[in-house]
Amino acid sequence: MPLSVIAQGDPTIAPSFPTPSEIIKERLHEGFDQQEIYKQSCNSVVRIEMSDPLGSTLITGFFIDENGLIATVISTNRSPDKITVTWQERAYPAKLLAIDERTRLALLKIDTEMTSGLPLGRGLDGALGSQVYAVSDTSDTLSRIVPGRLAGREATLQKNVLPTTILRLHMKAAPDAFGGPVIDVDGNVVGVLLLNLDQENEVCFALPSEILQKVLTDYEKFQHVEPAWCGFTLELGTTTPKVIFVQSGSPAAAAGFRPGDVILRIGDRLVRDYQDVVDRCYYLTAGQDVEIAVLRNQTDRTLTLKPKAVSELKLNNK
User: Which of 19, 113, 181, 261 is deepest in the core (most CB within 10 A)?
Assistant: First the structure.
């Protein structure tokens, strides 16, 4: 919409803007109380020290259940030799249970009970411009809760297609807040904080909470994170998600995919382009049927695909 259209109106009528006191009352009424958010979540946030032969790194994590299960993001590709979690001024040795190699989101476990897990929300469905908070256990007490806004969703970064869509936030989080929760005004985790890639413009990124749910689902089923393999190839760099190749003996071949099929929907999500399909395939669970709607010769069809585990594919190729 042109800016001139937005600016149109009766020049004789002065625009009405809310006063600061009205804004404060509105935010308190809607739950935009920063201190209340921190009070509700700070007991669930931990400090993590990752150690390896090249040194140690301090990051943040948070409990997601009552039995010491922790979510975080491991910032390096190196496997840590030692993981120490500090919670309520006490240090605990931690075990790395699972890690998603595509996003580096990890599950840790410490030997304790009566932890307070943060509830998971829906990061991908959040309204753009909505208020969020990054909560951490940083050494700088003033940076332990940082307000921000959900600014967008990104499927590419620096012209590279990402394994799945991430959240773009307008906020300036502390470096050691990496791996900590991004919380909405209702107290739900909507993301897991990534590095601040544009500190000057206060832009950082977060993995949506749906990724954490995917990792939890995989861990419960496989005891590790298991990518799903479909067996079709799309034409890269086009706005139409058209299948150009179906591998013989693949789940896609068994489901009846053909070259030329245009993918319209995966599960309950409509897809528009190549990036949408990559994003939705990330969330598929190996061994679990999913309905995929395609357009073939001007006719809509629904195919049922059962993805295979990538680890199973590797074993068969040995």
Answer: 181
Per-residue confidence (pLDDT) for residue 113, from 0 to 100: 79
The CATH number for 31's domain is: 2.40.10.120
Both tokens assigned to 318: 């040995």
Query: Judging by DSSP bridges, how do beta strands 189-193 and 203-208 pair with one another?
Result: antiparallel
Same domain, 80 and 218: yes
Task: Name the strand (E) or helix (H) holding 176.
Answer: none
Which structural domain, as residue segments, surrounds residue 92? 16-224
- Please tell me whether residues 149 and 269 are part of one structural domain: no
State the DSSP H helix or E strand holding residue 238, giving kind and residue range, or none if neither. Answer: none
Using one digit for the tens of pLDDT, what is the confidence trace for 124-144?
Answer: 999 999 999 999 887 666 668
pTM, entire model:
0.84
Q: Please give the backbone phi and psi of residue 84, each rounded to the nearest 5 degrees, phi first.
A: -120, 125
Tokens of 176: 């050691």
Give 47's strand partners: 60, 86
